[in-house]
Amino acid sequence: MLFKDILGNESKKKLLSDLVYNNRAPHALLFYGREGTVKLSLALAYAQYILCENRTKHDSCGVCPACYKSMRRIHPDVHFTFPVIKKDGKKREETTSNDFLENWRYMLNTLPEMSVKDWSSSINAGNSLPNINTRECNEIIQKLSLKAFEGDAKIMIVWMPEYLGKEGNRLLKIIEEPTDNTYIILICEDIDKILNTILSRTQKINVQPYSDAELSERIRTVVSTEVKDLKQVTLLADGNMSKAMSIIRGGNEDYSALLFDWIRASYKGKPEALQPIINACIDLGREKQKHFLQYGLHFFREYLYILGTGSRGKRINDQEYEIASKMKKIIDLEMGTKIVHILNQSIEHISRNANPKILFMANSLQLGDVLKNTA
């Protein structure tokens, strides 16, 4: 991937090319930013620029043997690590990223701005939560301890190191004392979930989301047919390419209906009204539960904007705005803020493998208390 093919983040692209061109490239680099940004694309372009045999001051040549292999994700000196699930016929502790390279290359070529939900769907994770296990960490150390196959540099790209957990401690030595011409590139969304011992050993680059204009252009390049209501999709996605594709595929419709059903049932507080909604939330699976809760955050942030400013924000559709207008009679600014807090906590608890049945029941009761103004 070439830097020039990535929309936006011009200052970051210049910084990355300058680091390599001036022989100041750090051995450990961390790209972080919101879901659906070009973090992974920048990492791929950066790795290709390091390996390029005829680089210019600002970009790879795109035609040398190293670029040819990098763009096809088959360069023997570029290694990938990412969260995976149990592979058929293998124990979970024996499964590594190597078992899913075909899926990985496909996603890199189709949607490098993918979310964890997109990735989980591509590997049919279902309710299984992907992670990076002990064997994977040992393989990272082994791969980086060997000599480069071609040229001098060896590169390890670790996508979503939040899924390392305490296993990340195994990588501290290789990050702190890498072998010559070894580059470790981490790509994350939640920097607070990365071990401080790893953070302190990396140079950090904050990747910005697409602007509305950039996102519209990116959608046009990915979707072969004309996108209906492209402007509305762009506004709702708010710079998140993964979310834009989900909206185009109709991924938000069920979440909006489920959210408002949940609010109504929580207000009633009756078990016979709550149980079907809680069961529907449980049936989503962990990653979709997080996506559902994130949709709830989107709606209530827009709702708070309406209450605070008295005007409609750009990122709320007609159906949502109509519901928000009716809600103003029931939910005030303080109550809306409490609901946002509940949703944020819920996402955090789901990420930590909380029991979804207990979690959604407890949240329903909390929502009910807020809505009845008894919290």
Quick structural summary:
It is built from 17 helices and 5 strands.
What is the helix content? 40-55%
CATH topology of the largest domain: Rossmann fold
Number of strands: 5
- Terminal-residue CA separation: 52 Å
Q: How many strands, what sense, and barrel or not for the largest sheet?
A: 5 strands, parallel
Query: In percent terms, what proportion of residues is strand?
Result: 5-15%
Taking pLDDT < 50 over at least 5 consecutive residues as the criterion, the unreliable ranges are none
Helix and strand content put the structural class at: alpha/beta
Mind telling me which CATH architecture of the largest domain this is?
A: 3-Layer(aba) Sandwich
Descriptive account of the structure:
52% of the residues lie in helices and 7% in strands. The chain has three domains: 3-209, Rossmann fold; 213-248, no CATH class; 253-371, Zinc Finger, Delta Prime, domain 3. It has helices at residues 10-21, 39-51, 65-71, 101-110, 116-122, 134-145, 172-176, 196-199, 212-222, 230-237, 241-248, 253-268, 271-283, 286-309, 318-327, 333-351, 356-371, and strands at 28-32, 78-81, 154-159, 182-188, 203-206. It has 375 residues and is of the alpha/beta class. Strand 3, helix 7 and strand 4 form a beta-alpha-beta unit. Strands 2-3-4-1-5 form a five-stranded parallel beta sheet, sandwiched between helices. The radius of gyration is 22 Å and the shape is globular. The longest helix is centred in the C-terminal third of the chain and has 24 residues, at 286-309. It is built from 17 helices and five strands. The N and C termini lie far apart (52 Å). Helix 12 packs antiparallel against helix 13. The model has no long low-confidence stretch (mean pLDDT 91).
